[in-house]
Design goal:
It is found in: Cell membrane. By secondary structure, the chain is mainly alpha-helical. It has a single domain, classed as MetI-like (MetI-like fold). It is 74% helix and 1% strand. It is built from twelve helices and two strands.
Length: 313
């Protein structure tokens, strides 16, 4: 009897192992297209860019291509244009993200209450996010041109802006680009922070109100500490995106006047597609990638720390 039961169970176990192997093979094959896509679109261009950055490689002089090691990176440290592009990128990122966070938080607080009016307002303010940065840049360029721009003409006419327009003045061009970025991306920050506000425990807020805490005290002691993960998430997304700004700068100022609005990504594109200096362009792109990786890693650590603190761990 025992032998018959054992023999009856053996095919079932073999069938189970065969099913698990087929299931594992099926999921492997399902993920294979995504893996190939990442390798072709992401990993291979990155590896190729690192390789090119180690060479003196100009498309106009392909016969003079030779290995230079880290010389392209060292040259960037002593290049005034690259340093200026880096400073412009940092100023743009800090200015835009700071204002977007403050305005976004104010908008989120204003739309915190869930009613029909606030839902309609939220849908309307999200319209700029649905427009691509390239189109936004073209819209503001058309609006702010001093000769026929709908807004720029009157600004120049009343002496508020330079007669050449806001984008043509070195002292106002970068600030105008920051304003354009704020107009487009503040609603996204507001949406992220609004989601964080709606996730706050209502009993704690109600208890603090019963205890006599003012709105400012609740904001400072309860809301902001509990909102830190959402705040840091918004900061991470917007800082990474702002640091690699290209589209709106390219269509509005092209990095000008002079190099007043030149950014790292725009500088890399100019080196590669205008001067055909692929080695230098790859080095600038890799430098930008390193800066973004450092920023992302720092914010991720802060998010984890804030999340542990908010959960009392």
């Amino acid at each position: 009897m025992t032998l018959s039961l054992t023999s009856a169970l053996k095919p079932s176990a073999a069938l189970s192992v065969s099913y698990l192997e087929r299931r594992r093979l099926f999921f492997t094959l399902m993920t294979l297209p995504a893996i190939i896509y990442v390798l072709v679109i992401g990993v291979w261009p990155l590896a190729q860019g690192i390789w090119f950055s180690l060479y003196e490689y100009n498309l106009l002089k392909p016969g003079r291509t030779h290995f230079v090691g880290l010389s392209n990176y060292v040259d960037l440290l002593f290049d005034a244009v690259t340093r200026g592009a880096f400073v412009n990128t940092v100023i743009f990122t800090v200015g835009a993200v700071t204002v977007e966070l403050l305005l976004g938080f104010a908008i989120a607080l204003a739309l915190w209450r869930d009613d029909r009016f606030n839902r309609i307002c939220l849908a309307l303010i999200l319209i700029p996010v649905t427009i691509t940065p390239l189109v936004v840049g073209l819209i503001f360029r058309a609006l702010l041109l001093a000769d026929y721009g709908l807004i720029g003409y009157y600004l120049a006419e009343f002496g508020i802006s330079d007669p050449r327009g806001l984008f043509a003045n070195p002292s106002s061009a970068l600030a105008t680009l920051i304003f354009v970025d704020i107009w487009e991306w503040t609603p996204l920050v507001a949406l992220i922070l609004l989601a964080g506000l709606k996730a706050l425990p209502g009993d704690i807020l109600e208890a603090s109100e019963v205890d006599g805490a003012t709105a400012l005290q609740r904001l400072r002691i309860i809301i902001i500490p509990l909102m830190l993960p959402s705040i840091l998430l918004a900061l991470t997304l917007r800082t990474i995106d702002a640091f690699r700004v290209f589209d709106s700068v390219y269509v509005t100022t092209g990095g000008g006047p002079g190099n007043a609005t030149n950014t790292l990504m725009l500088h890399a594109v100019k080196q590669g597609l205008e001067f055909f200096n692929i080695g230098r362009a790859s080095a600038i792109s890799n430098l930008t990638l390193i800066c973004i990786a450092v920023i992302a890693a720092g914010f991720i650590l802060l998010i984890r720390k804030a999340d542990r603190k908010a959960n009392g761990r």
